[in-house]
Design a protein that fits this description.
The chain is mainly alpha-helical. Helices cover about 80% and strands about 0% of the residues. The protein has a single domain, classed as Up-down Bundle (Methane Monooxygenase Hydroxylase, Chain G, domain 1). Helix 1 packs antiparallel against helix 2 and helix 2 packs antiparallel against helix 3.
């Protein structure tokens, strides 16, 4: 996704925050933190991953589906790619 290079630094920062959240979950499990605390951390990490996914889906839609200058075949390919990803993500 070459178009992600325009906001690459923001995406990488987001991924690093998610990695930090997952490291916190690992530490919580390792130190036998209460299950409520671990569940809260996992829920926060899941929300962060969902937010990242939402942003990437939006970028893909804008770049590969909604652009009027693309021909029908390119737009169809972009749509098919996105459908495949959403189906895999929804499992």
């Amino acid at each position: 996704m070459a178009h992600t290079s325009s906001n690459k630094d923001q995406l990488i920062a987001r991924i690093r925050r998610i990695a930090g959240q997952m490291a916190a979950v690992e530490r919580a499990l390792d130190t036998d933190a209460g299950c409520s605390a671990v569940l809260q951390q996992v829920a926060a990490a899941r929300g962060a991953i969902n937010g990242l996914m939402d942003e990437l889906i939006e970028d893909h839609l804008r770049e590969h589906v909604a652009r009027p200058d693309l021909d029908d075949a390119a737009r169809a390919a972009g749509t098919d790619e996105l459908i495949a990803v959403i189906r895999r993500y929804a499992k």
